[in-house]
């Protein structure tokens, strides 16, 4: 790690004003981006210069344990700094947005850890991964609702005056059934039931056996318990989607149930925060993030979720953040397209904002720094 304090290293001068790290830590992967702290306000439409982007494995402490999660977070941040040709002495702010961080005690442990990792005057912010995911679709402004459906799932909302609410996000044991883990676990259960004669026959049996390169459903038990990783189970979601697209009734039922679970999570959050207005018709942004919500040729899960929500709240304005990068020697440029500049869009369609949750985390850190600077200057 070295012994540099902020400003002592020659690398600190590589980017005038220092750098900001934004981390999106999930159950499947962890992404860290490095931004110049002195960048201008990211007005939409506009661009944010991303100095580097690093990827590592799971950092959800509920899945891999706290020590392994912290090791992954440290690894991905150090890698991003190295790729940006700088080091920790240049860091002026870090926003850790990590799944599994759900309570103030979780946040405090993370803050205590990262303060020792970056000694000096750097500022640190710790949030649940849903917060950064929301910011990634709203240019760093925390207002609206986000639905994450990857390995796990959560719906999280924020009002303009700072009230928050969430639904789901309790992990597979407590029923994130709209998640990748939930979908795949139900598919595996359906295969076992069909094999036992307790459930209908399904093409999932053939497809999953082929995917896992095993000889019979009997081997699923050993496979399922050989590795406790939630992401390993969730990786079977494409098999379920493919079977549903080919007309398998069991696979289609699983996906329809997942759609209902995800839609109900969003509806619960929107209702609790009155994001839709008193009459239920006001427009509000809904950011959609996660592999489960990626579009498919025939079975568009996110599209079906939006249709369900639109029946209750016709003002929903869906946003699908994506990454779009042009690469030169050291710098990635990520172009951010304004969400809902004109809210006159079809509710079944989503706007691409061309940014990812890790950048949302970095924008949150940048916004916090900017506000604190204004307060110090008496603005």
From TrEMBL:
CDD domains recorded: ASKHA_NBD_DdNAGK-like (cd24081)
SUPFAM superfamilies documented for this protein: Actin-like ATPase domain
Enzyme Commission identifier(s): 2.7.1.59
Coiled-coil residue spans: none
InterPro entries given in the database record: ATPase_BadF (IPR002731), ATPase_NBD (IPR043129), Euk-type_GlcNAc_Kinase (IPR052519)
Every ATPase BadF/BadG/BcrA/BcrD type domain range: 21-301
Enzyme class, broadest EC rank: transferase
Similarity comment: family membership: Belongs to the eukaryotic-type N-acetylglucosamine kinase family.
PANTHER family with a match to the protein in the record: N-ACETYL-D-GLUCOSAMINE KINASE (PTHR43190:SF3)
Name under which the protein is recorded: N-acetyl-D-glucosamine kinase
Originating gene: LOC123160299
């Amino acid at each position: 790690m070295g012994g540099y304090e902020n400003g002592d290293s020659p690398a600190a001068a590589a980017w005038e004003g220092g750098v900001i790290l934004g981390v999106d830590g999930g159950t499947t992967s962890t992404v860290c981006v490095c931004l110049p702290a002195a960048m201008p306000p990211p007005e939409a439409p506009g661009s944010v210069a991303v100095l580097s982007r690093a990827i590592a494995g799971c950092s959800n402490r509920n899945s891999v344990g706290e020590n392994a999660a912290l090791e992954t977070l440290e690894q991905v941040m150090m890698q991003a700094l190295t790729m940006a040709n700088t080091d920790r002495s240049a860091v002026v702010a870090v926003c850790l947005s990590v799944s599994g961080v759900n309570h103030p005690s979780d946040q405090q442990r993370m803050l205590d850890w990262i303060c020792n990792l970056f000694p000096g005057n750097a500022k640190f912010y710790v949030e649940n991964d849903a917060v950064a995911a929301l910011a990634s679709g709203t240019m760093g402004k925390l207002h609206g609702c986000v639905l994450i459906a990857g390995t796990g799932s959560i719906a999280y909302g924020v009002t303009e005056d700072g009230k928050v609410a969430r639904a789901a996000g309790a992990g597979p044991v407590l029923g994130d059934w709209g998640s990748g883990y939930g979908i795949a676990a139900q598919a595996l259960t359906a295969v076992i039931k069909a094999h036992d004669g307790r459930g209908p026959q399904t093409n999932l049996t053939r497809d999953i056996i082929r995917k896992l390169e095993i000889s019979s459903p009997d081997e699923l038990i050993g496979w399922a318990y050989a590795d406790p990783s939630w992401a390993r189970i969730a990786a079977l979601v494409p098999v379920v989607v493919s079977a549903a697209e080919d007309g398998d009734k069991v696979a289609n039922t699983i996906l329809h149930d997942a759609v209902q679970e995800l839609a109900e999570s969003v509806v619960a959050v929107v209702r609790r925060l009155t994001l839709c207005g008193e009459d239920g018709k006001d427009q509000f942004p809904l950011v959609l993030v996660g592999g489960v919500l990626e579009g498919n040729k025939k079975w568009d899960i996110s599209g079906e979720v939006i249709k369900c929500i639109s029946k209750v709240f016709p003002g929903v304005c869906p946003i699908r953040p994506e990454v779009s990068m042009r690469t030169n020697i050291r710098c990635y440029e990520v172009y951010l397209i304004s969400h809902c500049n004109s809210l006159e869009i079809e509710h079944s369609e989503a706007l691409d904002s061309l940014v990812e949750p890790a950048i949302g985390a970095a924008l949150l850190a940048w916004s916090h720094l900017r506000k604190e600077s204004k307060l110090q200057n008496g603005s």
